[in-house]
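quick one, 108 residues, struct below
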Amino acid sequence: MAEMLERDALATAEAWREAGRKVALATVVETWGSAPRPVGSHLVIDEEGNFEGSVSGGCVEGAVVGEALELLETGATKMLEFGVADETAWRVGLSCGGRIRVFVEPVA
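---
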């Protein structure tokens, strides 16, 4: 199931790029505790805020999409970190525990 989700997300990214859309790729690079998606999981986001895939099973997708939209404007990259030990834990829904680091980058 996870492999199919990854293939679907990456295929969607390619289709969006071929259609001339700006696309960002978010990749889980580190987890600790009860993070629901493994390292290497992807979320792709287009310039209109459409997305495919998952980096957290719904816990932080909204925050990642928001950051990706900003990065698509600037062309920058960013490492995001969410967890119960920081001030964003309750806002983005990782109250179950754990920590997740997600690297977000525009796709050329």
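Residues 2-18 form the longest helix (17 residues).
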